[in-house]
Amino acid sequence: MLDQQGQSGEPRRKPVAVLAMGADVVGRVLAPDLRQRLARSVELAPGELTGELTGAEARAVLAGAEVLVTGWDCPRLTAGVLAHAPRLRVVVHAAGSVKPVVTNALWERGVLVSSAADANAAPVVAYTLAALTFAAKGALSAAAHYAERWPPFTERTGADARTIGVIGASRIGRRVIAALNASDAGHRVLLTDPYVTPAEAAALGADLVDLPDLCRDSSIVTVHAPQLPETRGLLSAEMLKLIPDGGVVVNTARGSLIDTEALARECAAGRLDAFLDVTDPEPLPPGHALLSLPNVLVTPHIAGAQGSEVRRLGEYAVAEVERYVRGEALLGELRREELGRLA
Question: D-isomer specific 2-hydroxyacid dehydrogenase NAD-binding domain spans which residues (predicted)?
Fold first, then answer.
């Protein structure tokens, strides 16, 4: 953290901050008023690094950087890049997952790493809850049969009490559980997560079960686990078959967590419905079955911050830089040992 005064007792010179993210991203994440606010805490380097970080121009800018504010499309911060940033003390990522950007070289150098993932979580939670509400109401089936049959009142479903299985007690999974318990729908919530104890799950408001039992007992399954080698295909063909007929799968995490072709078969058979904001591959190839099935809604990875929501990421990042300059703990600080469990 920063000392507020230099050795002479004079106020410390503002640290130099550099922005590094995609050219089409930076203006949306850091609007002019947010840049002005940021400039009150740091000496903001002119311009932005919007491409690779190993060229002569980028190296010259990085040489004086103590603070690096990154975002979508920032290249990885490898040891080679860091070699040209000897003064770097903190990286503040104005986006969700830091995995495309960070490397172990940062922690080996003692650089602080912070992420605005908390700011990105709120839109994902809102999207997930909307999908769960549609799932509980049987909205996809109702929409598909709208023209041919108007259901009588006695056949209509509502957001009635369901058993909802949550895969992964991530920051988003935990918020989804909290929101479900705060509603008056009376849902029972099941949770599977290898890092959570039964007591911790109970404190969250969920019953901890293994994945097969979650699939067997849930009418709706929502996925919030990180993308890791061991989670690839977590919802396999075998697991999907365990979900009861009429069940719904919701995925706002990563497409690789579900066996795409197995899910397509279950949905094509009419046994399961699905709300998918992420797929594997992404995007799906033209003509893929999931894109035309009436009981599947596929959206192009829009659950996270979009449009005006992106500003939240910039606000979070600026506040983190302000905390750093004041010598305070960073709210979004990440430690190397946590990286393997993050999305």
Answer: 144-303
Active-site residue, 254 included: yes
Q: Which of 130, 123, 160, 339 is nearest to 222 (CA)?
A: 130
Summarised one tens digit per residue, pLDDT across range 34-62 is: 999 999 999 999 989 999 999 999 999 99
- Of 283, 311, 342, the C-alpha closest to 27 is 311
Catalytic residue among 174, 254, 312, 323: 254
288 is catalytic: no
Where are the extended beta strands (E) located within the chain? 16-20, 43-44, 67-70, 90-93, 112-115, 163-167, 188-192, 207-208, 220-223, 247-251, 272-276, 296-298
Single pTM value for the model: 0.87
301 is catalytic: yes
- Asked if 188 and 240 sit in the same domain, the reply is yes
Report the percentage of the chain scoring pLDDT > 70.
Answer: 95
**What tokens were used for 276?**
């998918």
Domain holding 44: CATH number?
3.40.50.720
Given 265, 301, 311, 341, which residue is catalytic?
301
Asked if residue 7 belongs to a domain, the reply is: no
- CA-only gyration radius of the chain, Å: 23
- Note down the domain range covering 242: 120-298
In a domain, 4, yes or no: no
Which tens digits make up the pLDDT trace of 112-137?
Answer: 999 999 999 999 999 999 999 999 99
Per-residue pLDDT at 343 exceeds 80: no
User: Residue 45 region, left (φ>0) first, then alpha (ψ -120 to 50), else beta?
Assistant: beta
In this prediction, residues 97-121 reach a mean pLDDT of: 95
Element (H, E) at 194: none
